[in-house]
Input
Amino acid sequence: MNTTAPLTSTPPDFVAGRPRHSAPIRAIAKPFGPIANLVAGTRIFPVWGIVRHVGRTSGKAYATPVVARSTPDGFLIPLPFGDATQWAKNLFAAGGGSIRFAGREHRIDEPRIIGLEVAGAHLPLPIRFASRRLGIRQWVSVRKVAS
Output
């Protein structure tokens, strides 16, 4: 059990709200899940990464494939399922974790929830458009920890 203070000044509370349209995301995720598991975190298709996090109550280590977008100082990860997103709850509780993206492992901290308006500055127009159409209103922003 982690008894140290969180690595961020942001409150560890994870409040993302409910998603607007989770059914289309679930329909997309189901057939692409096996593919994501194979290529996530590799250089083959640098759209998916693997978030490594520790369970809030179990203390068990998890690795979850996610869609990720690299930013100059970290990553943006969409929250299509809002408060039902377990990896995000774990990341917030621990104050960080790691992400394998494009063949490299990165330590991450300072998770925070940001809206599409803020995330949009780091997203290409097609992703902003798709996010709006799919009802993805919130993203988790994390900072890369300098090695």
